[in-house]
Structures are given as C-alpha cells and as structure tokens.
C-alpha cells in the first residue's frame, strides 16, 4: 500500500506540551504544525491540509477543544481528531466521541500511547483510502455478466466471450474447479441472440449414469420403474437457449456416444419413446481436466472432443490473477454484508497481503466462501490477518522465511492438510463427495477437518 502524506496539527495552550508532542511525533508524520489556541488552530487548519488534529479540551480564548473539533470536522469530515485533557471524565469523553473524535487521551500524556494512537489514525486513514480506491477500481473494473477482472488474462477471456457469444459454435471452457467456468457459460448466453431463451445447466459429474440419459433426453411415462409421467430432458428444456454441460469429461463411454449422436444429427428420442425430436440448443461444455490426456488413455472420445471444442476458452486460476483478488474481495464484502444485514467491513493491509499470497486451490469459489464466513462470524469493522484460517498462511520464522517441516510426521500432516483442503474446495465443501474422492469415510473426514481446523 502506498503511504500518502500524513500531516498533523497540534493545538494546545501549553508550550511544553506543543513542543514535546512535535518532537516526540517527528517519526510518525510527514509534517507537524502547532497552534496555541483554538482560533489560531482553526485558522491554521483552514489554510492547510491536515489528516490528524491533536487538540486539548481546555484552550485559552472563547472556543474549547470540543467546539474546535466540531468546526474542524465540519470543514473536513474525513480528518481524525485526538482529544487530550488533564480533566478526563466520562462526560468529557462522551462529548468528544459524539463530536466525532477519533480517540480521547488523558494527561499526563504517555508519549508511547500517543504515538500508538497516531499510528492507528494513520493506518485507519490509509485503510479507508485503500478501500475507497478498491471501490473505485471495482466500479471501473472490466465486468461482464457478473464476472469481475482487470488483469490481462481475464481481459483476454472477456475478449473471447464477446467474439464468440453471437455465434452458434459449441464452446468448451477449461479451468480449475471453482475458477468461474459456469459464469463464463452464462456470459456467453447473456450476450448471445439466445439470451431470451433458457439457460439450463447440468452437472454431469454429479449425475448417476443410470439417470443421465433420462436427465439429458427425457423419458416417456412407464419407460422404467418410477416413471409415472412424461418428463422432458435438458435438451428440451433448453430449446431456444443454451445447454451448459459441466464436468463433461465425467460421462461414461455410452453417454459420450449418445451425446455425439445428438450433436451430429440435432435429433434425439426420449427414453422409452420412438418419436424423433429436433433440438434447438447451443451447447457449451466445461471440464477441469486435460482432455488430450483423457483421449490418450482412452477415457474420452476424440471425435466428441472435436465436436465440443470448436471454440476453446481457458479460464485462469486465481493464482494466475492475483491482481484481481482485492477487487473480488471488495465485491464479495459488499454482496455478503448487504445480504446478511451486516455493516460494511474492511480487510486490514496485513490480512490483504495474506489473501493475495495464498494458494487458493478452490479458486474464486473458495475465496467467496471465505469472505462470506468472515462477514457472518466477524463482529468488528476491520478483519485482521490473525482472524484468517491458518491454512492460508505459510509457516514463517521470525525473519519472515518459510520454515521446513521439523519432522517427517509434520511433513505428512502438512501434505494431508493441503490435500483435504484442496479436495474440499473442489467439491464445494460437500463432505460425502470429498470423502469419496479421498477414499475415506465421512467420519474420518470429519475428524481430520476438526484436527486441521478446516471447518
């Protein structure tokens, strides 16, 4: 974060206090001016630019420090004011805070405490400026159908979407789990001539093979046990619009043949039916796997790949677009604070550095879930780094260098923690699916999550 100029005005009728504070705070501010009474302080403030005013409550002349505080903040509502007094009472403190004081310090002054509060005021101002800058950047950010990104990689994705959206070409979107592939598919739909039609998404990876044919093509009444009525499939539901096939590489060999036949002929029959139905959909698919490798090992048909991959779009991982992380965090903060009725929260600079540097195996989905959790569980206005999950932060020595595991068991635990965290994020924190992927019971997964603090 770039530190902007920080100027301080000290208003006190005691020369020793003015001089002592000016000397004691020389390393805390870029410029320090003093004034002997409220009138002089107000005149000095009106002719200069100050980010912090330190003012005594009892000042010589017709104006006290509380009145000075109110008049200064009327001129500049953003200025921070620290009120000091030798007559500290609860009533005085309440009056000062009601008038907008940043803090209240009693005499005799503890210079270290004053320095601490001055640093706090400076950090608070810089944090506010950084968040305002983020909001401005967010407002100006390249945004396409709820996809946010300013980095070059995302701008390239936006360019491809705009080029392809108006066509009827099939598109295959590739990228890691949680990177936003469905958002890209929705953007393709929203910007197409089919935007007035339905957008139907089906997750093929979560669909049992026995139900997949019926889900895609529909079924007739009585075609199998439990088929009590005719049901249109996704190809019918998406007529005139877009059909999004997520995790398309999870299809069985038979389902791949069925899908290829429909893509080639634009016709299909419902399960248990005989009538050929025409399909009028634009097909967009997505996968988080390397399709050429799947073709090589024989688990995915090459001819189907060429049908689906007429236009490829690669969505970058969050690690490849770290410059967008502050923008995404600001967007999610605004969204979830509004959604859950919470006051707007801010991310402290040390926490933002951790978030920007984290590995994010679950990509934007993982970041979104974390921000929502922080909004719901954090009671303060500013979220610090010590309130972030420990698995986001690399182990550090006192010198700020990553430490090596102290033992083989620690290395194994670190690897296990990272693997569970990664698979959890990829499965959108669905415990049954995560346990299945890891080859353990749900009970074992629950124990491990508790042990590693992954709840």
From TrEMBL:
Signal peptide from the UniProt entry: none
Entry-linked PANTHER family: SIGMA FACTOR (PTHR32071:SF122), TRANSCRIPTIONAL REGULATORY PROTEIN (PTHR32071)
Keyword ATP-binding carried by entry: yes
The encoding gene: atoC
InterPro entries to which the protein is assigned, alphabetical: AAA+_ATPase, AAA_lid_NorR, CheY-like_superfamily, Homeodomain-like_sf, HTH_Fis, P-loop_NTPase, Sig_transdc_resp-reg_receiver, Sigma_54_int
GO MF annotations in UniProt: ATP binding; cis-regulatory region sequence-specific DNA binding; DNA-binding transcription activator activity
PROSITE patterns to which the protein is assigned, alphabetical: RESPONSE_REGULATORY, SIGMA54_INTERACT_1, SIGMA54_INTERACT_3, SIGMA54_INTERACT_4
GO terms under biological process: phosphorelay signal transduction system; positive regulation of DNA-templated transcription
Ranges for domain Response regulatory: 7-122
Any one GO cellular component localisation term in the record: protein-DNA complex
Organism expressing this protein natively: Rhodopirellula baltica (strain DSM 10527 / NCIMB 13988 / SH1)
Protein's name in the database: Acetoacetate metabolism regulatory protein atoC
Keywords assigned: Activator, ATP-binding, DNA-binding, Nucleotide-binding, Phosphoprotein, Transcription, Transcription regulation
Domain Sigma-54 factor interaction per the UniProt entry, residue ranges: 147-376
Residues recorded as bearing 4-aspartylphosphate in the entry: 56
Superkingdom per UniProt: Bacteria
Entry keyword annotation includes Transcription: yes
